[in-house]
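Q: Structure for this?
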Amino acid sequence: MTDILRIVIAPLVWLAAFTTVYALHGLVCGHAIGGMPFGTISVPRLLLVSAYALAICAQIILLISLYARRFATQSEFVRFVSRATGWTALVATVWTLLPTVTMSHCL
Amino acid sequence: MKALERHREFSRIWASAPGFKGLFSTVNHTDLGRMFLVTAFFFFIVGGILAMLIRAQLATPHSAFAEPDLYNQIFTMHGTIMMFLFAIPTFEGLAVYLLPKLLGTRDLAFPRLTAYGYWCYVFGGGMLLFSMLFGIAPDSGWFMYPPLTGAISSPGINTDFWLIGITFVEISAIAAAVEITVSILKFRAPGMSLARMPIFAWYALVTALMILTGFPPLILGSILLEVERAFGLPFFQAEFGGDSLLWQHLFWLFGHPEVYIIFLPAAGVISTVLPVMCRTTLLGYGWIVAAAVALAFLSFGLWVHHMFTTGIPHMGLAFFSAASTLVAVPTGVQIFAWIGTMWKGRPDLRLPMLHILGFFVTFVIGGLTGVMVAVVPFDWQAHDTAFVTAHLHYVLFGGFVFPILAGLYYWLPHFTGRQRFFYLGEAAFALIFTGFHVTFLAMHWVGLLGQRRRISTYMPEDGWTTINLISSIGGFILAIGIAMVLIEVILHMLTSRRSPRNPWSAGTLEWAMIIPPAPYNFASLPHVTSREPFTDDPELAVRLASGEGYLGRPNDLRETLTVEITSGKPDYHVIYPTNTHLPIIMAAVTGTFFLSLLLKAYWCIPIAVIGVAALAWRWVWVLGRKQDLPVQDIGHGIELPNASTVEHSPGWWGSLFLLVANATFFGSLLFGFAFLWTVAPGWPPPAWFDASAVELALGTTGAMVGAAAIRRARRANALRQPPLAWLGLCFAGTLTVAIAAAAITLRVPAPVEHAYAATLLVLGSYALFHASLGMLMVAFLVSRTALGFTSAARKTEFPVVQLWIDYLGVIAILVFLVVHLTGWLS
Ligand code: HEM
Ligand SMILES: [Cu+2]
């Protein structure tokens, strides 16, 4: 079972991050949270971008652990597949949450 | 013992009851797989006839063929039947039939559950057919958006048929998914590690896990909508703090994964059949597995792309637009692996290969138009036009029907033991392929010219007449092709000559047996050392038949073994239950429950619920034994403990995955609550819940005591001490939870007045239901212990009950916190 978890963990974390950021975005807009206490950066932007950065960090840590000898698996096949899904999840995190940086929020 | 004698003995042990009557008590996966497939194909024909009615209606402007009301029923039932009663059950049937054979074992993990799922499907599908025959079929489109489907706009029983019938059918999908997951993880031939699993099994595993996490949001949505319609709890009514968008979220949270749930098994068929047609092995096995897993996850991050036109803020749209374009990448990886496989081998244009080529062309076009509609501004133009209908048919027909036809012709000799004789299939393929593209290319075009979907008529001035006529002619060519397939299959079953064994020279284990298969599959189980055991050892079938593998000695029991998940090392010995009517009776009683809801015969509901509980009790009860089983010799010097003496029996694994689905259901409910709270208009509610510290403390303590006590009971049993006192304590804890949950349901403010109170009522009922279930389970364990069915060795029921009590603890505490905290916060 741990081997199955190895394969799914990184995409699962992506899914969690993706829905969390979407929910955060919904909360920010639903409750009209705003304000610009930090110069040109608004509170929503700060929240969303931090969540984005956090998600990327989590994926990088996961990927490193998938390569680390400490958590290695017996099965070469599982090693390959889990690293492939690890990379996919990293790319997915960077790409799908990119709008936190580039788009207007709540419009 | 000679091979023939062994065959006779095993056949006697494993056979279903003879004749037609045997169908009602069979638990054999080969029978049930065939029954699933035949029933699903029947629904395909029904859905196809409806499609012909649609095309007949749209062939000319001002068509007088069907009135708008009837037309609404026709396209709704076409979509619903194709998605829920054809596509998903076809996957289930194929998996049920093939998996044990591909995995080198004798049956699926829970044979009676397979049968139960099948009968739920038949009864639920029957309800929908009935509604159609009497002209009271659902008529609000296959995604049933409120407020159109609310009690005000759709007062008739039509919508209830959909909500209740589909939920009933969904039970069968969940049952099959649990079954398939546990079977693939545990029920394989010795030596079959994860890396040696046939590729179809990987696809089926991913698909089953997606069903477990994709279907619960829809089940939740259907329950909420039905409760709204029947009792007026306003989950989707904006005037009372509900929101119709909540339905769209819940539906598409299911609906998008659904299309991959349909595509992935088909991709599994392609990955299995294509290499055989090209006389080579699959290129990039590991890449394909990774791509399937990636696809499964990404597909859960796409749902909002069906809601691009609902006014969601731009950033939200952009997330889902980005994810929707990304999902093309793992799909592309698979396509390239298949192209590479063809490159590597020598493709042979036999009939399955033709359908695979049909798949390639069609599916790639569908994928491209998919990327087009993933682009938000384009979708704003194309949304709800025939362009989208054309796109979805390219993906569904291209990505599912063509591969399934390839699979049908590939495994036909296996199903029937006969050789294809009438070469109608090639002509049929040509008609299907041409007909399909004529129909749906035209629909893209007319969609771009502005034809909306779901319209029963249009004007000559619209300028769509010629294109629609062409499209309809294409549709009828397609239908003739499908009819020819049907005729060929029937002729084939009746008249063809016997097929040699392994007619395609395939390497996977399903061909290493006599065809049509004997009920036990393998007279002895193989030891697997590669992905294509039958290629490595062409004598394998003969050696297995003569009992050279594992468990080759018939001993009056239906036996098999399980393996460790990763390595494929044998770990337990399993004895299956035999033929029984329990599944069909249980499905009928479950059906009574749904029928009482539909007919608003609420007095009957408690009777049905008690009936289901009693049957479930019996279901598990008959598995018990009063003596410890010694370790079993499975041959080749290996001895295994029986599954009733281990910590994690198949029942434990089944419960675990059922709870995964259950947790998704609960998660969706919490999501719905948060969604209404933040997004829905009409908040704050007129009255808040009157929070109570005493109830909160009582409920939480009860949950924790229950969890602690079941652990002590389990330990006591292991130490040969009587566990009854601990079980009693566990029961008391669970009862406390039930009381605290009941208190919520009794004390919520008027639930018909606001979605807030309505949601609390559902949360409380959810906890109450699980507490009652927990009490039933603990009571079961008490009776088992009192009557001597458990011992220090026969301990396996304790961990199962513990799992459910733990789950109860977690969800109950969450429910108590959510309910009481919202009361305080306000
Ligand atoms: C046999 C050939 C088929 C033909 C000629 C056909 C034709 C059509 C047409 C013309 C519509 C549009 C109805 C309208 O918007 O007024 C439609 C809708 C639909 N079809 Fe098919 N179809 C076929 C097969 C399938 C298959 C195999 C599937 C799924 C596996 C499918 C799933 C759907 C769905 C989900 C809808 C949407 C229904 C709705 O709008 O509620 N169809 N079909
Ligand atoms: Cu979608």
